Amino acid sequence: MNYIDTLIKRVQAYTPRTIEADMPEAGILVPVTRDQLRPEIILTRRAQHMNTHKGQVAFPGGKYDNEDESLMHTALRECHEEIGVSPDKVEIIGPLSQVVSLHGIRVTPYVGLVEKDVSLTPNLDELDSIFKVPTHFFKKAEPQRRDRMTYKGMALSVPSYDYESEGERYEIWGLSAIVLVELMNVAFDTKITIFDES
Q: How many Å from the N-terminal Cα to the C-terminal Cα in the chain?
């Protein structure tokens, strides 16, 4: 199966949900390696000295800056600043649905392709590591737990995944897990639910 061609076709055909509200905005990049047989998703872990979300797994991204042309440019700028991948090394495929962070920020994720051997350099002012997770991991992995959340009256049951890479254990949960689940469902038809069915 040609996973990258499938991902491109499905993400470009997808109509993501948008959130109409007056709130601060952020853009994040969901980097996927251009590997037809074994694509990987690039994630980061925020440094312990950060004021917010310290030690949490996240996608490269950040708040919209007035100098940014768009939220997509925010995501690309932050990707360059955080993991050393310049915008010309990323092929943007399209957006996923907007989500609201615990701090009341509307976040727009953008799926972007990068070469599988792209050089990754963590900005140690913000991150303590960068790691990759094969997409097939999320097709088979059982969540370590599920976190119950409510948004606009909608009950969510968000999976939390444990992943080990080079001797390090990473917990993928919260907003990052919501974005990951949508990508996996849209691109690879995994049918992972985040809705509380109890």
A: 35
